[in-house]
Amino acid sequence: MIKKDLIHHPRYHLLIISVAFIAINMVLYHHLGVKVMSDSTRYIDWAENLWSSGLSTYQWRFWYISYVLFLAILLPLGLKGVIFFQVAISSLACFAIYFLTVKLSSNKLTALLASLMYLFWIEIPGWNMFILTESLFTSMIVLTVFFAMKFNRINQLLCLLPLIAFTILIRPMGVTVLIALGFFFYYHFNCHLNLTRLKKVSFISTGLLFLLVFFYFLLEGNPDVHFYYARGQVVWGADQMDFLKDNPWLVVDNSQVIYPDRSLTSTEKFFEFTLTNFSFQLELFSKKLLFFIIHIKPYYSLSHNLFIGFTLFPVYGFCIYGLATDRTNPGMKYFTISLFLLNALMTGLTVESWDGRFLIPTLPCIFIYASIGFRKFVGRISNSESFT
Q1: Are 136 and 67 within 8 A, CB to CB?
Q2: Calpha distance 213→291 (Å, rounded)
Q3: pTM of the prediction?
């Protein structure tokens, strides 16, 4: 009895999570060190010049301002200091996943499983060692929705606004978090407050309007956006990097592409290019979407792809089952669905990263529902209460 109580005790679970988190991140730091990539140098340069240049010269870089501020504050500690704080914030996210899952499932073992999924999907803690937005963005999404779950009144949102603003301005894809939070609050407050039809329409209309405005400014801020499509790149750099070149899965034949009139606006160019090259755009979009979802890449090692196949695909299955059967919090459910679909859509409309990092911020919520789905599936097939 004592042993069984210990297994189900939160302190025992938090100890397991803490030891695993420290061990995994120590191994990763020993193996990777501080990773500075090509994008890292841009972020560091922006951070070093932020106080002197200000925001006015940054234009679209404004969408990275939270990470630039994060670096600007921590760079006096050196890059190792930046990594330390990325790891520290990631640890908070890991514990937040545990408590989120406890609230959603009312089951502590399920929560432990969700946290361990987050840790042992090695790509997530691996990004902690990179001077890139992935680690902070992923962690802050978890922390934002964790605190959002605690509020049941609309006026309490004022306390959450600084956290939301910081999160969505870590990188341009933050707009997907903002829209997903719109779904979260719509269903969350509707559940608790029984919103009137007028308020429901206002919620939906505001979200759609924001999405259209963002898409318009995204296009107008990139006057030659159609040239990126015309290159036929499924994975960014596929026509330049030696290990990506000449792979039929990574590029789409662009020999028959028709270019739009240069006198048109960016938005008009985009729609004319899409309509006149519809089959080309559809194939390009479909391949980007495929590689985003499956995460497997033809240039990964066989062992890497097998690891993804035998771990991520079952996780997807259990997540779908968990989402389909869960009735506890519709706000969290629709946040998870919309965050994944919006990031998939944005990747399809832009480009897939060669390292698959655009999928990473969507995974913590997927792991939460996968753990819930796994518990329900095991309970259903075994008719046992050992896991419930």
Answers
A1: yes
A2: 28
A3: 0.90
- pLDDT digits 0-9 by tens, 367-376: 999 999 999 9
What backbone torsions phi and psi does residue 50 show, to the nearest 5 degrees? -60, -45
| CA distance linking residue 217 with residue 14, whole number of Å | 45
In angstroms, the CA 121 to CA 324 distance is 23
Question: What amino acid is encoded at 44 in this protein?
Answer: I
Contacts with 213 (C-beta within 8 Å, 6 or more apart), sequence order: none
Q: How far apart are CA 308 and CA 80, in angstroms?
A: 30
4-54, pLDDT tens digit by residue? Answer: 566 777 889 999 999 999 999 999 999 999 999 988 999 999 898 887 766
| Phi/psi at 237 (5° precision) | 85, 10
- Number of continuous H segments (helices) and E segments (strands) in the chain: 17, 0
Neighbours of 109 (CB within 10 A): 18
Per-residue confidence at 328, pLDDT binned at 50, 70, 90?
Answer: confident
Distance CA 258, CA 281 (A): 11
**Residues whose CB is less than 8 angstroms from the CB of residue 268 and which lie 6 or more positions away in sequence, other chains included:** 260
